[in-house]
Amino acid sequence: MDSTVNSEESYDLGYEPSSSSVDQNDQSPTETPGFSIQSVDSFPYCRTNSEASGFSEATDENSSSETASPLIWPAMKSPRQAVLTRIGMMQNKVGDQDPLDLELEMMKERFSKLLLGEDMSGSGKGVCTAVTISNSITNLYASVFGQHLKLQPLHPEKRLMWKREMNCLLSVCDYIVELIPASQNLQDGTPVEVMTSGPRSDIYINLPALRKLDALLLEILESFEETEFWYAEQGSMSEKSTRSGSFRRVVQPQRAEEKWWLPVPCVPHGGLSEKARKHLRHKRDCANQIHKAAMAINSSVLTEMEIPDTYIASLPKSGRASVGDAIYRYMYTADKFSPEYLLDCLNLSTEHEALELADKVEASMYTWRRKACLSNSKSSWVMVKDLMSDTDRSDKNHVLAERAGCLLFCLKQRYPELSQTTLDTSKIQYNRDVGQAILESYSRVLEGLAFNIVAWIEDVVYVDKTMRNQDS
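Given the sequence above, the corresponding structure tokens read:
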């Protein structure tokens, strides 16, 4: 196949045309394991909950998410939109062993798995496309970042795998559009209103933001290529250190039990230089802001998802019985409700206790909301007048629902690595909206990566402070 065809096909896949993009000696694997196996300490839909990707492949070094963003919506056609058409045209080229042809065949197989809902047997037992794409993004994240536990650049092959396969998965958003009214003039100058297609508003706003956060997180990892600190296995001695590698810090309350498999950061005698400490503080602040932004996007997407009927049917009849008498009395009798004070009094010691409380508070909140709606089931005009007045806000169920929402929000802020609640898991499981599934899973994995980076930086800062105090 001549160079002209190779250049055209590589551009359709999102590659920049170059000689390396058609390397005949490419030794990248052509098949990967099935779907992921969750780690021992993970919860369903946790931030990092698997170790192998069912949608991963080694990538060419020229693939990049910046070269062809799917959320750029000009009048011209997106380069990746030709990929699906080209895949269909390549069906008869079985004997051609060109690397790009093999690439197209692998992409065709991946999209077939997505369309069949992870069930290649054809028995119709697969899950819906939205859940399949959500699982694929989660598994890809775990495959790329699952074993990355240090402040250091991501391996080049892993980085290229992440970019290329995320581009492939996110390309689905190119076809999720909505009709927007627009004005158009006919040849005689008569203005008419027509409906034009454009990107759906939630995807148009959130997906570019998530892509930017993704790039910033990889940039933070790349900034630690040359560092004054290094890592040693837990309890071992580093080749550069004369001290025991046992400075592992309990960074957050939910890390009460030490995770022995995590590598331990080590610093030289006297600690890090002022320049290195300033760099750590700056990157920690950046990662913190990214974590908050990803968490906000994830929360907004989950809020927009429909509540499954199965969850509504499982709600308790009494919110008081769900949260318990002690919490109910404080929420109902306190003149000035303080969720932070209530959490301090509860003294939660494990992530399991925090997640259990979150499930109970969330169930009670929806129980009280439902009762508040039932109590206001009046005629339409009376209901409108009541909603516009302040009388409804004094309703007991309305007040309790608002306070339960505040308590749930503070609980998630205090335990940012908390697993998905029962409601969130149900929403993801029964969701049928592909766009929402992509935004939710993408924001969730970025939230987890940002949290991990902050924790790794906090570890190094703590070790540096400990070393300087010991030498002083």
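The chain has 16 helices and four strands. Try to locate this feature in the token string yourself.
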